[in-house]
Amino acid sequence: MKYERFEQLPVWKAGIELARQVYAMTKSGAFRRQRSLRDQLERAAVSVSNNIAEGFERGTTQELLTFLYIARGSAGEVRSMLWLLETLPDFADRKSEIPDLKSLAEGASRQLRAWADSLQDSSIKGQRYLSEKTRRADQARRERERFLEELRQAQEANIQKPHGARSEGT
Predict the structure, then answer these.
(1) Is the pLDDT of residue 167 over 70?
(2) Of the four, 68, 120, 129, 155, which is 20 to 30 A from 39 by CA?
(3) Which of 99, 103, 6 shows the shortest CA–CA distance to 49?
(4) Could you tell me the pTM of the whole model?
(5) Distance CA 103, CA 22 (A)
(6) In degrees, to the nearest 5, what angle opens at C-alpha 49 toward C-alphas 2 and 25?
(7) For residue 140, how many other CB atoms are within 10 A of its CB?
(8) Among the residues of 59-131, which ranges form H helices?
(9) DSSP structure class, residue 26
(10) Are 51 and 95 in contact (CB under 8 A)?
């Protein structure tokens, strides 16, 4: 599936859900007394989806990759802070929420890694570099690859027929 907007991306949606749940957790309790910790955790959580969006909108594969890695770093920062929260007595009442948040952050991080890995060897430079000429060349390349695959399959099918086998009607 080709995504036209970052809002369609499953990983962006995962980032939004992570931020939503972090905000729900930080709105009360010990977070009222720990403003800097709350602010840092919220900023890191929001950074995941924001960096995905910014990278997607930049128009080049290289810039997208850069922002995917920044988003992944932010997901790691959220996980690190959640590990810390588990050890602090002031946040004992949040211990049941923390594993789910860590799992959300890990899931986003895995998706980001997989996407980044798939882009690493891509010959596509990005939307910013597409012109009518490059679109036609890309379409011709895809059609050539489809034709060659069909040819390969036909040759394999032909090789598998026993010699001397006659097709029906001959």
Answers:
(1) no
(2) 68
(3) 6
(4) 0.72
(5) 12
(6) 140
(7) 10
(8) 61-87, 98-120
(9) H
(10) no
Residues 100, 69: Cα–Cα separation, whole Å: 22
The CA distance from 39 to 44, in Å, is 9
Task: For residue range 47-103, list pLDDT tens digits in order.
Answer: 999 999 999 999 888 999 999 999 999 999 999 999 999 999 999 988 899 999 999
- Six token digits for residue 136: 């036609």
Residue 41, both tokens: 């955790």
Q: Minimal CA–CA distance to 97: which of 34, 33, 28?
A: 28
Both structure tokens of 142: 């895809």
Q: Which two tokens stand for residue 57?
A: 């909108």
Q: Which two tokens stand for residue 170?
A: 């001959």
> Tokens 């598998």, residue?
160
Q: Can you tell me which residue has the tokens 């099918």?
A: 157
Tokens at 59, concatenated:
């128009």
CB 80, CB 63: distance < 8 Å: no
Given this model, what pLDDT does residue 150 score? 87
